[in-house]
Amino acid sequence: MYGFLKIIIVFLGRYLEADNEAVALAAASEQEKKTNNANAELIDKYNKAKSSKSLVEKHQEAVRVQSKKKSKKDRDKQKQEWEGQHPWKPWDRDKDLIAGRQNVKVDAQNMSQG
User: Which UniProt keywords are listed (predicted)?
Assistant: First the structure.
């Protein structure tokens, strides 16, 4: 009977050792996964902060800059065409309303004579 108990105790001891090793390995692999995930997150943050713009972003920025330059060129070109084809200047209310005005004295007697 003691031999049977001894065998059971040895078997249980080996089973518990194997179980403890399995738990330790699982905990170690879990810890390693957490460390790897943390490292991956740090690497992603660094890459986002330090990486250059994507090709799409570069293209969009270039198109935006070109359209600004083009619109400015178009405005300058239209202004030059207008001034080149028309020697007169467009109407300016502030300047044109007072331009060429002279003080005239109104004399009622002279006006009635014609």
Answer: Signal
Q: Exposed (0-12), middle (13-18) or buried (19+): which is 101, by Cβ within 10 Å?
A: exposed
Provide the H-helix boundaries in the chain.
Answer: 2-50, 55-85, 93-98, 108-113
Per-residue pLDDT of the chain (114 residues; tens, 9 = 90+): 678 778 888 888 888 899 888 888 888 888 888 888 888 998 888 888 887 788 898 899 999 999 888 888 888 887 777 666 666 677 777 777 776 667 777 777 777 775
Q: Evaluate whether residue 106 is within a structural domain.
A: no
Query: Taking the complete model, does pTM exceed 0.85, yes or no?
Result: no
CA distance 28 to 36: 12
Overall number of domains in the chain: 1
Torsion of CA 97, 99, 102, 108, to 10 degrees: -20
Residue 111, domain member (yes or no): no
DSSP 105: -
Question: What are the structure tokens assigned to 78, written together?
Answer: 């239209």
- Enclosing domain of residue 36: 1-74
